[in-house]
Design brief:
This protein has 612 residues and is α/β, with parallel strands linked by helices. The protein is 32% helix and 20% strand. Strands 7, 8, 17, 18, 19, 20, 23 and 24 form an 8-stranded mixed sheet that branches. A hairpin with a 3-residue loop joins strand 13 and strand 14.
Amino acid sequence: MSSANIELQCAAQSVGTVNTLVTTLLQALLAAQCAISAPELWPSDYADQALKNGLDTYDFVVVGAGSGGSVVASRLSENPNWNVLVLEAGGDPPQESEVPALIFSMEKTSAVYNYSTEPSDKACLGLIDGRCYFPRGKMIGGSGGANALFYVWGNRKDYDGWAEAGNTGWGWDDVVPYFERSISPVGNESDPLGYLTISQLPDTDTDIADMLAQGSAELGIPQKWEFNDISEPGYFKLPRTVGNGRRTSPAKGYLSRVSPRSNLHVIKEAHVTKLNFDDSGKKVNSVSFILQGKYELNVTIGKELVVSAGAIDSPKLLMLSGVGPADHLKQLDIPVVQDLPVGDNLYDHVNVLTFLKLRENVAPNVTTVDTLDIIYKYLIHQNGTLDRTPSITGFINTLKNDTYPDIEVHHIIIRRNDQATWQIFASGLYLNDNITDQVSKALESADILIMFNFLLTPKSKGYMRLQSSNYKDDPKLVHNYFSESEDVETVLRAMRFQEQLVNTTAYKAMNATMLLPSIDECDAYELRSDDYWRCYLKYFSCTLYHQSATVKMAPETDETSCVNPRLQLRGVDNVRVADASVMPKVPSANTNAGTVMIGEKVADFIREDWQN
């Protein structure tokens, strides 16, 4: 904005000094905005060199620069005798990716794959078109550049269960060293082993934090505020991948940090379309990719290919390349290279939203000045409410019979009349207009606390298939949420837990009342009866973005196995998979930390096999 434009908007004109001051301020703000995701934060793009000179053979090609691929590429390039190429379908992260509080603003943009599931009569009926929205990161950082930044390992029982199923080397005691070596706590970023910066920021919403702590304590829930990385019953302040007010994704910590290495190249906007096998079907010679949407290129693999495209795009790529269920591939006229149950084991944490009205007619309104102050603090000082996400999280065992939680609860507060934040949130979750408008109306007079009640130990699992043999077409995704009655009963107990919280002294002091948006089908039942809640969860369910297990790790004696415990693709000599798709089941935690751990272990597997 020029000083002339400023003068035209003012009744009284400046004689010069005020114009200069305001122009200086605007320039500082714009410069700070540009610095949020400056190019120097990310690996340089090798695309121009590839187009000009072609591509040599690479020892290792990694498909995907997400939480798994970034780790693998970084660790392998530590060996100066190995050259490593990373192919990422997206570009540098947008500014919104770096601002912790704006996690929902990237949905339905080019920074993510905007996948939707098949319709179901059991879940997601309150979302647009009645379909669950499954966004997946498409950028340097992958979904680790779009997630809610929580860093949680899971429970001992998760990983010991993997090992008991025959996955040797994946028990709790086996994986903990890999979790530990990936971490650089804030203040120790120079640690040569820990590349992932995590922090535990204080909550700005102390009134909400106090209510959650005191209310859950009244119900006998342990208060374990210093989180020890293990998901067990209690209320915690979870650590997050945040440093200096910015997201510290695995791509930034692992890949960007070492990108000056001469043996590491990254090509952006490189959408891998096919793995090219030799005649035996046991070795991938090269991969084909489309660069910048128009150039067709191939790269030859010297040692191994590592597929780290995520729990949806890894199985999609494998099936497009002839690795998957034979009957399905034949229907699409895709030549079968390996008949494997790729896509058969889609697990996810289904989430059910609940809403509380707090301090109705008493809570102060959020004003335009408040919003401007928040933006200024973040841009100039990298602090304030934009540099953090709500961290207080409850891990609940709804049966009260085990130290293994079955429900996790996240909390998001939207202050009275902060309609802009609500609209970003509602749009990000893809809520339909009926629900969005009803909550918006309630927000006019009260603060709204949103609870994400998600099922940690789902019994229901879905599947994915190709829609066609065209790589541009989205896959067919079937979530199967609540297809197992045990899952429904667990979520019903979570609803009862929320009802109990509302009746505590701490919640009553905040005048907390449940906000239950009107749904015609559900209104026919007695309010808060079991039948009402069963209806409610059909409409207010959605994903928690933890899709996993679609390229399942299991011993080769297990007919459901897609990769063995060293994450080698069954029947293929030089392909491994390294992302959340290899998890046998989704762990009882947010999945980003587990995916980083998988990347660390795969790098060790590869080093063991090739350094000797």
